[in-house]
Design goal:
single chain; 237 residues; alpha+beta; Phosphorylase Kinase, domain 1; D-amino Acid Aminotransferase, Chain A, domain 1; 2 domains; 5-stranded antiparallel beta sheet; 6 helices; 33% strand; globular; binds cytidine-5'-monophosphate
């Protein structure tokens, strides 16, 4: 299958149509942005690493019964996937406090949360992705029914229940992550976007070393090396 029209260019991916109306191609870019686009850079090889990591993780989740948009990895930087109507809610799952949770609520960085926290952010760059509660989401008509919000939370927890032990077995703590969902042509809610160190935080279980985009956000360097290490652990290399 080949790329046809550019549908949309995001910060980390380009989205193309194909000859099949229900199938799209994502091209994973090497570009990196943080702080709502204020900090920008590019790291050769980053896009391919995220494509490979996402491919493996979508396969793991599909095998455990989570419906996703993933069809196949085409080559280093391209993934074939289903077309959906994206739900403009970023579902954030947290096992350990850090990042905006620690900043906003003063919870000690690194504190293991007493239970898994699931939050909603409004996917809206102009507004800086503000926090949403269920009533906000319904007033904004981001979904039609409360049931759908409950389903997003339920699916996000299922993903965490699968990936947290999966990464623990590979010596990585899954600190937090962001998921996106969409509705397929039959109206089913499925997992979309990517699952990679760009939108997950991984800390090495032994050393506490950050193995994710915080290396870029915090100017720590060694980003692609860390992403490569995450991929190698996934592949048991
Ligand atoms: O910045 P914050 O602590 O809220 O991020 C929580 C998690 O969600 C992190 O893993 C981060 O990478 C991810 N995230 C994201 N895209 C955003 C906001 C957060 O991937 N726009």
């Amino acid at each position: 299958m080949e790329k046809r029209e550019l549908l949309y260019e995001g910060k980390a991916k380009r989205l193309f149509t194909t000859d099949e109306p229900e199938i799209l191609i994502s091209e994973f870019k090497d570009d990196l942005t943080a702080f709502n686009g204020e900090k920008k850079s590019s790291e050769a090889g980053k896009g391919a690493l995220n494509n490979k990591i996402s491919t493996e993780l979508f396969k793991v989740l599909e095998a455990e019964g989570i419906p996703t948009h993933f069809i196949e990895m085409m080559d280093d930087n391209h993934m074939l996937h289903k077309r959906v109507d994206v739900i403009l809610i970023e579902v954030i799952v947290r096992n350990i406090a850090t990042g905006s949770l620690s900043r906003n609520l003063g919870i000690e960085d690194g504190k293991v949360l007493p239970f898994t926290l699931v939050e909603f952010d409004y996917k809206n760059d102009d507004l800086g992705d503000p926090k949403l509660n269920d009533q906000h989401a319904l007033i904004l008509e981001l979904v039609e029914y409360q049931d759908e919000l409950d389903k997003l939370r339920r699916m996000a927890r299922q993903v965490n229940d699968i990936l947290k032990p999966y990464f623990e077995a590979k010596g990585l703590n899954l600190v937090d992550f962001k998921l996106e969902f969409g509705k397929d042509k039959d109206g089913n809610i499925i997992l979309v976007d990517e699952i990679s160190p760009d939108n997950c935080r991984f800390w090495d279980a032994e050393t506490g070393e950050k193995m994710d985009k915080d290396r870029f956000r915090q100017g720590l360097g060694g980003l692609t090396l860390a992403y490569e290490e995450v991929l190698n652990r996934i592949l048991n290399k």
